[in-house]
Recover the amino acids of this structure.
């Protein structure tokens, strides 16, 4: 590795790679924002980026580095080559692209070369630069793969049929339509009964949360605290049930529900959703209960409370964060459940949201309705998660990780 | 973006559909593994890193010799769990391809046999096969778990 650890060589290689990343990012972002054709040119990005890297290495101020990047890309893009190729794009958009690419490259590279200087590098300095490059790449990459699908979904839902047929890959927003943008949402709630589906989904999810907690709190407590024969086997079988795929259960459920007339009823769905959520809740809760100090409960028992009172007055208040996260998680599972709703519900007035969206997925119904439906189903979950994210991330891994 | 001029049928052509479904599964479930690995990483003792800094370990050495061995338990558990869960995945594949173009997994086959062909018996038979596979996986899983005690 030693011959590679030279300041200029490192700077050039990282500069080329980073310019590559930025060129792709800017090209995708610009074509999403404007709907015009932007194309990253990887071959031309490499030499330009290498040169830029070497220049930035000599520059000590961040502002100067960014100016160098902007200057280089404005000149090259204006001359018609450079890291981003365009076809029939206005000069304003071109200027914005050059500006973004230049700022991104200059700013990023300057940050990466904090410990790099011309001449031989120590292992520390070399690896520090690489790690900074990987960090920047990680930020961009993960943001992109999470944000792009949502962006496409929202933008497609705001289009009308002509625009979609004209250019399905044009994701720019036509603001001149005003409220007409939300046309497909309006139709969704009037013509396709999405209001009913939403109420159904909400009702089922909330009820599932209550039923699940009702059963899983005592169950989890028993597994975590009480000594009884077969405790270990019971504890393991929870995980085993957790792993049984719903499709295996779906057939017997379908046959049984058909015979008893529970198919096509919300009551039947409410009977079966907790079956899939209780093992998850049990598993998460018992992990948390194990982590609570047993001494407090023993003190409660000494003071004359019985077991149920101990659970109600001592364990549950202590486990409140876990309860919150388990409820959220169960709510999410019930809200997103598709397979059972798909098999058991045929009557459109009893559809849940997921089932309703699946019924939109046919060739007769235009795509923007499908996307609007997906947005309607996703937004409540996103809002819940973002609002209560602290509970979620802790609860998901609670009890599963030992230090 | 100038990669190709032809239209690409992502979910209809034979090798591509399987690849796309796999990529979709990776995309959909990487955050979960991410969370678990992050949680485990945050519980690693920082003293070790300080000691490594004193001894002059470089960043990559610290990752390779300190973080990775600590993460091995949770990584292997995640590997097994995700393998089992993805093996049992139905709705993603069903909605993406409907089991066409070489993506008919066992779970999709249950649905196809039972509802598309209306042969509930055959569907149940496939379900039993899935269950047996799952049982063998879980025997492996629990054997492994009792050594690791990671999850």
């Amino acid at each position: 590795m030693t011959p590679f650890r030279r300041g200029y060589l490192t700077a050039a290689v990282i500069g080329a790679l980073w310019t590559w990343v930025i060129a792709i990012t800017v090209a995708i972002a610009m074509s999403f924002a404007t709907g015009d054709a932007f194309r990253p040119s990887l071959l031309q990005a490499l030499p330009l980026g290498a040169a830029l890297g070497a220049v930035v290495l000599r520059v000590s101020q961040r502002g100067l580095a960014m100016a160098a990047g902007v200057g280089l890309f404005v000149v090259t893009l204006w001359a018609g080559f450079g890291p981003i190729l365009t076809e029939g794009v206005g000069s304003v958009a071109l200027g914005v692209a050059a500006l973004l690419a230049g700022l991104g490259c200059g700013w990023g590279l300057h940050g990466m070369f904090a410990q790099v200087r011309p001449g031989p590098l120590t292992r520390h300095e070399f690896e520090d630069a690489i790690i900074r490059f990987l960090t920047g790449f990680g930020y961009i990459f993960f943001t992109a793969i999470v944000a792009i699908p949502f962006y496409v979904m929202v933008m497609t839902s705001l289009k009308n049929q002509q625009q979609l047929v004209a250019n399905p890959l044009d994701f720019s927003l036509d603001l001149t339509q005003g409220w007409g943008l939300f046309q497909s949402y309006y139709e969704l709630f009037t013509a396709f009964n999405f209001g009913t589906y939403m109420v159904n989904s909400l009702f089922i999810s909330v009820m599932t949360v209550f039923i699940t907690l009702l059963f899983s709190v005592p169950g989890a407590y028993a597994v975590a605290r009480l000594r009884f024969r077969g405790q270990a086997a019971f504890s393991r079988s929870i995980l085993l049930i957790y792993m049984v795929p719903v499709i295996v259960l779906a057939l017997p459920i379908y046959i049984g529900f058909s015979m008893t007339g529970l198919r096509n009823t919300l009551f039947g769905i409410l009977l079966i959703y907790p079956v899939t959520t209780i093992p998850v809740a049990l598993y998460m809760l018992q992990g948390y209960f194990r982590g609570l100090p047993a001494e407090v409960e023993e003190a409660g028992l000494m003071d004359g409370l019985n077991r149920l009172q101990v659970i109600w007055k001592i364990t549950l208040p202590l486990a409140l964060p876990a309860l919150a996260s388990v409820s959220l998680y169960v709510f999410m599972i019930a809200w997103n459940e598709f397979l059972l709703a798909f098999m058991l519900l045929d009557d459109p007035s009893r559809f849940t949201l997921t089932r309703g969206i699946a019924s939109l997925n046919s060739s007769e119904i235009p795509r923007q309705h499908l996307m609007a439906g997906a947005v309607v189903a996703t937004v409540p979950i996103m809002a819940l998660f973002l609002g209560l994210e602290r509970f979620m991330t802790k609860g998901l891994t609670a009890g599963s990780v030992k230090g | 973006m100038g990669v190709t001029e032809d239209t690409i049928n992502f979910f209809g052509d034979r090798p591509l559909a399987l690849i796309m479904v796999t990529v979709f599964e990776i995309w959909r479930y990487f955050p979960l593994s991410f969370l678990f690995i992050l949680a485990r990483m945050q519980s690693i003792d920082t003293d070790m890193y300080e000691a490594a800094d004193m001894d002059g370990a470089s960043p990559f050495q610290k990752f390779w010799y300190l973080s990775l061995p600590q993460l091995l338990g949770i990584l292997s558990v995640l590997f097994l769990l995700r393998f089992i869960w993805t093996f049992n995945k139905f709705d993603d594949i069903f909605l993406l391809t409907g089991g066409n173009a070489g993506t008919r997994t066992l779970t999709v086959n249950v649905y196809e046999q039972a509802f598309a062909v209306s042969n509930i018996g055959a569907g149940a038979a496939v379900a039993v096969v899935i269950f047996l596979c799952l049982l063998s996986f879980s025997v492996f899983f629990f054997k492994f778990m009792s050594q690791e005690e990671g999850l």
